[in-house]
Amino acid sequence: MLTARDFVRGVPSSITSTLSLWRGTSVIKENIGRKADGKLLKLYDMEGCPFCRLAREALTELDLDAEIIPVAKGDDKVRAELKALGGKVQMPYLVDENTGRQLYESYDIVNYLFEQYGNGHQRGKAGHYVALFSSMLTSASRLNNGIAYSGVKKPAQPLELFSFESSPFSRPVRERLTELGVPYILRNLGKQQMSDMGPPEFRMTTKPYVPLAGSKRAAMNDKSGKVQVPYLIDSNTGEEMFESWDIINYLNKTYG
Fold first, then answer.
1. Which domain holds residue 56?
2. Can you list the alpha helix ranges (DSSP code H) found in 46-186?
3. In this structure, what CATH number is given to the domain that contains residue 98?
């Protein structure tokens, strides 16, 4: 249940989502009901980076999951891994083992994702710069969250996070995962219909909530009795939980 504490803490992140124009909220109509196939995409990412945010927005809009490799400042091992793989330490960096493509540059990544997995729509330079400007405002509003490494230990297996990019409650969790340098599988649960809008207690429907059949949202609803993000699964410990502040406390105790 959404508590007063959660609401107050979520307000700054909601302002952040507004600055990003709530991109990364809904799945484009062409991808609603798409079936996942092939290998997971891999994204070298820093949550607080405005360029990375554009790539993650596209993942939500295309209903794509991805393995997120956080590249926080000060995480020398991961930064060396990225340099060895792509030749430089720059994020975002996308690896698609389904096609053999590896790309830097948010503009190229977004257009590649839409061409390969979406409706083929290509973002022009002007539109990209508008999106980038609002993403920079978004990063500024979060100060230094999701940038600097402060981790102590890393899990043997990636965690699993159900989220969507503009979710005000998921953002602080993704920031902390970056700061701790904890890799995770991002399961995007972008909105697919009007009744998906809003937290579980306040969805825009007077009828019982029914997610689209066959979707990841339907799978979560069947398992947990509700669709709510963030939702964390840690196969290393067997822990599963909702609620962003509970998740952050767990991450701090387990990996901080």
1. 4-26+35-189+229-255
2. 50-61, 76-86, 106-117, 125-141, 171-180
3. 3.40.30.10
